[in-house]
């Protein structure tokens, strides 16, 4: 098995394949040897389960997943990395590499095709620029997965891990907590990568809920309300919601009042239950 956390080994393989890092794809390869074994171990997969990996890069995390899971399917967007992965992961018969854009693939079909009869976990080192879209697609698609273990930008992790109703929370905090229970696993310094990014990272785990923590009749409206409420954070919820939902200011004010809020309430102080109640009033 190749030591893909050794910088010289990595450089040698990449040079031989003619590969160059792409800034537009957010490519930063892990060279800290302790990170991927811990990620793979804590994602929850075992020899009876399957793992969907997104963005395997050179395969450093993929190796660890293949050693633990019954089956691994790795989705890689960059065609230039396919021959590299063929070389670095040739020994693993329980691996399928899929060249494609995770945002365009039918993940439900992929999971049923690759992991029939297995518990399924997601584990990935996501490029920073696509963190939110990928995670929200995984959650909103209501896939047959147990959890999502991902390495993300430290600042993004802090927002997700902040309690809904706190100053640090945002629309994505509410959305993630609606579908899953987030937890911090461990921090990762920027020196753990080649090339080194400008910021530190955090590995988080999102354990999928059996059902949302609040009951809403209209999920589409619920998320529209949440998005609008945080759309203009410096403004009061009345102004943000009126602009974001294109509704009269007085109607928003009346709805907030019906939920027990004053006219100057801000979105950052509202809980999941508050947003659910407001959605119920607005849908009436």
Textual characterization of the structure:
The protein has 284 residues and is α/β, with parallel strands linked by helices. It has 2 domains: 202 residues, 3-Layer(aba) Sandwich (Rossmann fold), CATH 3.40.50; 65 residues, Orthogonal Bundle (Helicase, Ruva Protein, domain 3), CATH 1.10.8.100. Helix content is 39%, strand content 18%. The strands form 2 sheets. The chain has a 7-stranded mixed beta sheet with strand order 4-3-2-5-6-9-7, sandwiched between helices. Helix 6 links the parallel strand 5 and strand 6. The mean pLDDT is 92.
Order of helices and strands: HEHEHEHEHEHEHHEEEHHHH
**How many helical elements?**
12
Based on Cα principal axes, name the global outline.
elongated
CATH topology of the largest domain: Rossmann fold
What is the count of β-strands?
A: 9
Q: What is the name of the CATH superfamily of the largest domain?
A: Vaccinia Virus protein VP39
The major sheet is characterized as: 7 strands, mixed
Report low-confidence residues grouped into runs of 5 or more: none
User: How many angstroms separate the termini?
Assistant: 61 Å
What Rg is obtained from the alpha carbons, in whole angstroms? Answer: 21 Å
CATH architectural category of the largest domain: 3-Layer(aba) Sandwich
Share of residues in strands? 15-25%
Share in helix: 25-40%
Strand order of the largest sheet: 4-3-2-5-6-9-7
Number of domains: 2
What structural class should be given to the helix and strand makeup? alpha/beta
Global mean pLDDT: 92
Specify the CATH class of the largest domain: Alpha Beta
